[in-house]
Amino acid sequence: MLAIDAKELTKEFKVYQSRPGLLGAFRDLLNRQYRTIRAVDGINIEIEAGEMVGYIGENGAGKSTTIKMLTGILQPTSGELKVNGFDPHKQREQFVKTIGVVFGQRSQLWWDIAVQESFRLLQKVYQIPDQEYKQHLGRMIEILEIEKLLDQPVRKLSLGQRMRCELAASLLHKPKLLFLDEPTIGLDVLVKENIRQFLREINKELGTTILLTTHDISDIEALCSRVIMLDKGKIIYDGSLTQLKKVWGGGRKVLLEMEKEISLDELQKRTADLSVHWESRSPRQYIAYLEQGDGVSDLLSRLVQDMPIMEMQIEEATTEEIVRKIYQEGIPVA
Amino acid sequence: MLSAYLEVIRIRFLMMLAYRVNYYSGIVIYSLNIGVYYFLWMAIYGSNQSLQGLSAVQMATYISISWMARAFYFNNLDREIAQEIRDGTVAIQLIRPYHYLLVKVFQGFGEGIFRLLLFSIPGMVVVSLIFPIHLPDPGVVWLKFALSLLLGFIVNVEINLITGLLAFFVLNNQGLIRAKRVMVDLLSGLFIPISFYPEWAQIVLNYLPFQAISYLPSMVLVKGLGGTEFMHALMIQAAWCVLLCIPIQAIWRKARKILVVQGG
């Protein structure tokens, strides 16, 4: 059974437009004008149980709206949706027992009371047997190192501490599917690593399917083998991270520093038959942009024989650069 | 599932304890109110032994009882719901396997129990020492009162749910909430017993749910209503409890459809 199966999933919002000025405000009182926005536009997603999938896109691309539909909070305008075999909106109360959710920007713990009281309430809400609860919670306390935080009210915790408790809270009932909406936002490197490690373990041990939205591409690199990219409500890429890099980040950048001055013409002449583009920083410093990643050795063999190279650096485009490029330029629908 | 709702009551109890200052200031405010209304009504009574079928002592009892009962049934669920809808935390509530509104009701109940035990009962003892009021001896009448009070609580909660849920449709319903609060205090007979209203107003109020919140429970105790009179009061309350479920369900269903979670 697929963990998530969405067909032509669409969500439209009606937003009312206010007219400018005082007169406009009066006219709005009597007659409001609405505009329909398609936040999510006919997307198809199939996710197998046990997968870890990154869901990325610019702000306002429709990520959160999708998550809210997948978790049963919002009702889709049209399309078919089955998550863990349920219709999330119609069968909400049964369905939500099978999922866990962490919203990075909202707390699901009770603000004014100790963390362990929140956990206890969740135990009752999800009807987890005592024995199982103690065992599972004990394990999470250990990995997430939250032992000392349990008797403190949530409002006194730092962001990193709170987020670790949130994760424990979302997994108390061992959900088959975990939604993470920007779980590492604003966290330091150590906490991030701790959380990633924890997620990997949970995924391996319990086979939890994880859908992760984030703006931090390093999260995706550390966790997900598959990434789905959304732009203006449409899926523009769905596939492996390595494929994404290969197709859109194939080029390499070679930084060269020569021992003596060499003209740009000279370099271009020597490499005329390679697909390379030169850029000069100074008469001694050049950057060569290669369209194909495997052209580096070709390029070097043309140069090293009679050109004294002092320093050289080969750079591969990072995922972050690739993603930025796609956000900026867009890509033809894959 | 019941244990989850009981846990909700316990948590709310803990939260009330976390905010003790609110509780202390509440005691002062309620004492002041009882004092003010007591002296006001005594001035109105003047040398009259009885007005509109209530003796001066009964009036004093009515005032203290209805204010102490208010401590039990009053809650800010409407404001909480509106707040949760406005800032989007309602989303968190919807990913839990429980009924959002039912949880709210139990939260309100937890709050009510807290105030009843730590506020109304000790407050009543103090008030009975200061003012010449007459409380019935322990017995069946207190049980009747408790039952009637519980129904009053439910009616008030239902009205709060409706007011709060309207935030789904008008995103800022602060004014509505305030208007509702004044309306409940005035029309439920808290400030003025319903028998003191003009004839036509009494007829109107008899068709509104507000009397079921405060007037009927207080009268059950003050006048020691028995037999058919008591049954009649109880039937009115129960009827409103059931009737008000209908608009709540309708609004909740509609609201879930159009729910737009604010802020991302």
From TrEMBL, chain A:
Keyword terms: ATP-binding, Nucleotide-binding, Transport
A Pfam family this chain is assigned to: ABC_tran
Transferase in keyword set: no
PROSITE patterns on file: ABC_TRANSPORTER_2 (PS50893)
InterPro entries given in the database record: AAA+_ATPase, ABC_transporter-like_ATP-bd, ABC_transporter_ATP-binding, P-loop_NTPase
Top-rank taxon, per record: Bacteria
Record GO terms (molecular function): ATP binding; ATP hydrolysis activity
Domain ABC transporter: residue ranges: 24-257
Keyword ATP-binding included in the entry's annotation: yes
The protein's name in its UniProt record: ABC-2 type transport system ATP-binding protein
Automatic annotation (TrEMBL), chain B:
UniProt keyword terms in alphabetical order: Membrane, Transmembrane, Transmembrane helix
Membrane-traversing stretches: 21-44, 56-73, 113-133, 145-171, 183-210, 230-252
Name this protein carries in UniProt: ABC-2 type transport system permease protein
Organism: Thermoflavimicrobium dichotomicum
